[in-house]
UniProtKB/TrEMBL annotation:
BP GO terms, sorted: transmembrane transport
Secretion signal span: 1-24
Protein name: Tripartite ATP-independent transporter solute receptor, DctP family
Bilayer-spanning residue ranges: none
Species the sequence originates in: Modicisalibacter muralis
InterPro entries: DctP_fam, TRAP_DctP_sf
Keyword Signal included in the entry's annotation: yes
Amino acid sequence: MSKGFTRRLTLLGSAMALSLGVLASPVQAETINLSYNGAPDLDKNAVHVFASTLKSLVEKKTDGELELKLYPNSMLGGEQERMEQVINAPGLNIASFAGVAPLIPEIYVSAIPFLFKDFEAARQFFDEGDYWKNVQQVFSERANGAKILAVVEEGGFLAFTNSVRPIAGPEDFEGLRFRAMDPSQVALYEAFGASGTPIPWTETYMALRTGVADGQMNPPMYIILGSLYEVQKYLTLANIQYSDQFLVANGQLLDSLSDENRKALMSAVHEANQMARVTNQAKVGERLAFLKEHGMEIINPTDANLEALRTQGQPAYLNWLTEEQGIEQRWIDMALEDAGMTKLAN
């Protein structure tokens, strides 16, 4: 065999190997950042449960063409910073009211105290109601085309906690000082004869430990996540507000996806949300049992006490919506109709 023929065979083999290598190499995945609050803890953080499930489903449904990279613990910035990022650059963000409300304060209407009696009522409100469809549309118009894709449960309904005495009805709040998440909670506490001071979540434990605040309100998940059971004695189950956050997607990102991958993403969001809801609801009893085992006294108000809380608390919140936030009455009326309520306490 001549040296020239051998050389030609070698070159041909190299070319074939290179060609096969190109054909066999996997398609380069498009990486999408997903940012959110809270620790990457599947046992304690319901938002992380949703994010992890969404990551798996997106990658499976797109055959690896889309890949989610998770950024828990606000690694990409605080609420406002992350919202600016998702409005202006490709990515996903799970935002709280603090992130979304500056763009659409009308979202506070969905947090009217004692609006929902249970999970089923709250989920139907967001899944099927006209109010929420209008919120999504207006948000997109104000947020450079970004879209709210899902309402993500944080871990149940908010509960009152405090370290002074059991709370069953409005009269038990008199003189107590509470940590508030935002001004709407301040208005609610004041309606009950207590005081409220906005305190960041990161400072809540120390505020409760040092007596700067006597109490706060959060779902059992966050009470465990923040170890608040160490500095709080009493927990009142009043289904105050449905605890939720909001999955927001950059508009240009959605537009850039192929029809097939966009449909796969939306399908994954829906499926991940349904799965996370099941997991979240199943853990409510377990979380309450944990808090009881760690020394908290669980108070279940009577129907009469719940009605008294509603009657006294709702007008203050409604006044805050219209007077302080400038919310038009039509948003409130629309939400009440979707919630199956003809009117609120007045």
